[in-house]
Amino acid sequence: MKATLQAINQMQADGVIGKYAIGGAVGATFYLEPAATIDLDIFVVLPTRSGGLLLSLSPIYEYLKSRGGNVLDEYIEIGGWPVQFLPLSNDLETEAVEQAVSTNVEGVRTWVMSAEHLVAIALRTGRSKDHTRILQFLEQDAVDRQQLESIIGRSGLTATWQEFKRRYLEGHHE
Amino acid sequence: MSKPKLRARLSSLSFSEKVKILEKLRDRSLALAVVRVYLDSGPSDLTPDLERQKLQRDLQKYLISYLKGGAPSAPRSAFYALTRAWLEGHRGRIRFEFEANGQTRSKEVTAVEELGNLVGPDQTPQTFFRGLGASRGAS
User: Fold this and answer.
1) Distance from CA of A173 to the nearest CA of B (A)
2) What's this model's pTM, rounded to 2 decimal places?
3) Which of A41, A117, B6, B42 holds its CA 20 to 30 A away from the CA of A129?
4) pLDDT, tens digit, 9 for 90 and up, residues B12-54
């Protein structure tokens, strides 16, 4: 993954992408024990151009293809990892990238979403594997519950959170 | 070591160490879920079907062992030597079937050079998956 992150950092330096943060299963691994995944989710700020927002991911794919990247549907393989670039689609993701934690992989600087933002995004996404991940965070006491509740409230996910807690944490199954 | 202790120990590793584990898990998932190897005979090949099937089974074991990342080079060397001999001696084809994006796909190899690019000396599981176009593999 070192080569993958070096390439992504170079994209940032070249102005192809703005700030970014690792999310998904790889992001969760920053806080939890490693769990099998085969791709890397990169939440990314797309640079604005004169005249408005750049809404297309094509410049990213063109940039990487010209440097030997292999496009596989919505993924592009960089340094042996299929990478999915996810443009920010709501305030929660924007905040998650803005407040991402700086770290490094084998000396290469990178950014990972906070545990609380990862949980909130998983709650919003809502697939069964997202619920499993949320439970892992909670069981391992890897989140600040007060901060998490605050993010959930700001993101309009309170009702979803209450339902999640009712189903998974209070033992009330339908 | 108990499961909670093991979990705590794994969680406390550095991100770099965890990423190395992720890479091994990823390669193992791909290896186990993705690839099947088949030997297709050329029109003039007289190899008995049972012999071909036995060789195919052996090759499958070597391939999985190599892709799982066990011994560094022995399974790859064996796989390469046997498949190369098949191509050269039987004028047949090697066919790899794999899962990609929920669909079964296949890649046929008829040339030794192409085989070498997949599993020849100095190649890795990553270059193999890249060569197949199977990097997305099993999700």
Assistant:
1) 26
2) 0.67
3) B6
4) 899 999 999 988 887 766 666 668 899 887 767 677 778 888 8
Most confident of A57-71, A132-146, B64-78: A132-146
Chain A CA closest to residue B3: A33
Residue A58, number of CB atoms within 10 A of its CB: 10
Average pLDDT over every residue of A148-159: 97
Nearest chain A CA: its distance from B124 CA (Å): 11
- Across-strand partners of A59? none
Tell if the CB–CB gap between A70 and B126 is shorter than 8 Å: no
Q: What is the C-alpha to C-alpha distance for residues B103 and B34, in angstroms, rounded to an integer?
A: 10
Cβ of residue A137 closer than 8 Å to a chain B Cβ: no
Domain boundaries, chain B: 3-133
How is residue B72 annotated by DSSP? S
Residues 6+ positions from B16 with CB-CB distance below 8 Å: A104, A105, A106
**B10–A105: do the CB atoms touch at under 8 Å?**
no
Distance of alpha carbon B83 from alpha carbon B92, whole angstroms: 10
Report the SS3 class of residue A23: coil
The closest alpha carbon to A33, from B139, B68, B19, B24, belongs to: B19
- For residue B62, which amino acid is it? Y
- For the beta sheet containing B93-100, the strands, ordered from the edge strand earlier in sequence to the opposite edge, are B36-40, B93-100, B103-109
Least Cα distance to B39 among B120, B93, B84 occurs for B93
Q: Which of residues 100-129 of B touch A (CB under 8 A)?
A: 100-101, 126
ipTM of the complex: 0.82
Is B75's Cβ below 8 Å from some Cβ in A? no
